[in-house]
Amino acid sequence: MNDAAQQDNRTQSGDEDSMSRRSILWTTAGVAGAGLGLGGLSSGTAAAASPSRSPEAAVAGQAAAPKRRGRTMVGVPFDRRSTVRVGIVGLGNRGGGMIDLFLAVSGVQVVAVCDPVKTKAERAAAKVTAAGQPAPAVYTNGEDDYENLCKRGDVDFVYVATPWGFHFEMAKTAMLNGKHVGVECPIALQLDQLWELVDLSERTRRHCMQLENCCYGRNEMRVLRMAHAGLFGDLLHGAGAYNHDLRGLMFDPEYYEGPWRRLWHTRLRGDLYPNHGFGPVANYMDINRGDRAVSITSVGSPSLGLAEYRKKNMPAGDPSWKETYIESDRTISLVQTAKGRVIRLEHDVSTPHPYSRINSLGGTKGVFEDYPARIYIEPDHTNDNWGDFAKYTQWDHWLWKEHANPPGGHGGMDYMLVFRLMQCMRLGLVPDFDVYDAATWTSPVPLSHLSIKAKGAPQQIPDFTRGEWKKARSGMDSEDPEKA
C-alpha cells in the first residue's frame, strides 16, 4: 500500500487478554447507549455513564460546557528549550517507525521508550544508540509501566502510539505528571473524556495534541495557504474521509495485535476514525479560529463487509467467528459550522475500494478535489474543465519548500509533523494545533454513533474552546520562524 495513512495508529502493545482490562471496556450492548455523553466532571474525573442510558439522554446538555477550572490554552507557547527530551509509549508499526523521525530532527533526544513487548522496546532502544544518543531508559513491565515513564524528571514530551483505548489514560497521565503530550488519533473515544483532556490541559498548563499527520500533507498545506489567500473566495463546503480497505490487515493476527482494531467494529456504529479527513478541512475553514463546528448528522450503511471477508478467508474455529459486527461499512456525516458551512466526512475500512481521503474544498470562486488532485478556480479555469493542481506550487507551505524530500513514510507528512512540533518546542512557539482541535476533530467518534442510533438526528458538537473560537488566530498557516 502507498496511501498516506497506512501506518495509522498501529498496535504497539500486548494481546487481547491484557487489553480487555483497560482498552476494551465496553460490551456491545453497553456501548450502544453508554459512555458517549459528557459524564460527570465536578470531581475532575470523567464519570462512567449508566449502561442503560439512551442516545437521546446522552445528547442532553452536549453543548453545555462545564465550568472552566483553569485558563485557556489558546495561544499558549511552549517554554523555550535547547533540547526536547522525548519519551515514546508504544513501539509497534507506528511508534517503531516514528522513532526514526524523532531521531532525525536536530535538538531532539529520545530518553525513554515503553512497550509491554520487550523485543519492540529493545529494538527501539537500539535505534537510539545507533543514532549516537545515550541509551534510553526502557519500560517493559506490563501495560501500566508507561506511568513510570511519565514520572521521569527528564522527559519534556510524551508521544503515544498505542491502541485507541489506551490513548485517553496515557494522555491524562502525561499531563498530570507535568508533560506535554501528543497522541495518535483518535485522542479519546467518549465526550466526557474529551472534556476531561481539555480541562486537564488548562489546569496543568500542558499541551495535549492530536498528532494529525494528514494536516501536514503537501496538498493539504498548499490548499490551506490558497484558501487563506482567498483563491477559493468565500468558503462554502469541504469534505474529508478515511476510506481505506483494511479488511486484510484487520484479520491479520500479527498486524493488529489483539486484534484490537477489528474489535471496535463490534462496539460502535459511527465514524471510528474521522481525524484524517476532518483535521485538514477544519484548518482550511479556521475551525476554532473564527468559525466552529456546531452539529453533526450521520447515517450508516449495513455492516456486511467484515462478515463477508471472514466467510471467504478465515478458517472454521478462528476466534473472529465469535464476533458480531455492528460498525457501518460506510458512514457519511455532515458537519455544520457556525458560519453555515458544510463539511462532509466519510469512513469505510470494510469494503473493497481504492484509498481516498477525499480532501475537497469549495468556495465562491471554485473548488479543489483530491484523489486525484485537480482544481477549478476562476478566472484561471473556464469551460468546466479541470485544471492542473501541479501548477500551483508557488503556494506550497514553507515546510515543503525547505524540506522538498523529507524522510519517513506517508510522502513526508510524518516528518513534517515531527519537525514542526519539535521546532515549536525548541523555539518556544505556540503549537500549530491544541487540545481544542484534538477534541473537535475527535468528537465525531461518539457523536456519529449517537446520530446513527437516533436515525440521523443532529447531535450538537460542544464548544470546547468555551467561546475562544470567535477570536481569529493563527494555526498551521505559519511563517518560517528561523527566517523571521
Strand content: 5-15%
Multimeric state: single chain
How much is the average pLDDT? 88
**What is the terminal-to-terminal distance?**
39 Å
What is the number of E strands?
A: 14
**Uncertain parts:** 1-61
The geometry reads as globular
Number of helices: 17
Helix content: 25-40%
Structural class of the helices, strands and pairings? alpha/beta
For the largest sheet, list the strands in their spatial order: 13-12-11-7-10-9-8-14
Rg, Å, rounded: 21 Å
Largest sheet: 8 strands, mixed
Outline the structure in words.
The structure is a single chain. This protein has helices at 16-19, 28-31, 55-59, 93-104, 118-130, 146-150, 167-176, 191-204, 218-228, 247-250, 260-263, 275-284, 305-313, 398-402, 413-427, 435-442, 444-453; strands spanning 84-89, 108-114, 137-139, 157-160, 180-183, 208-210, 235-243, 293-300, 331-337, 342-348, 360-363, 366-369, 374-377, 459-460. Strands 13-12-11-7-10-9-8-14 form an eight-stranded mixed β-sheet. The chain has a six-stranded parallel β-sheet with strand order 3-2-1-4-5-6, with helices on both faces. Helix 7 runs parallel beside helix 8 (191-204), helix 8 runs antiparallel to helix 16 and helix 9 packs parallel to helix 12. By secondary structure, it is of the alpha/beta class. The longest helix has 15 residues, at 413-427.
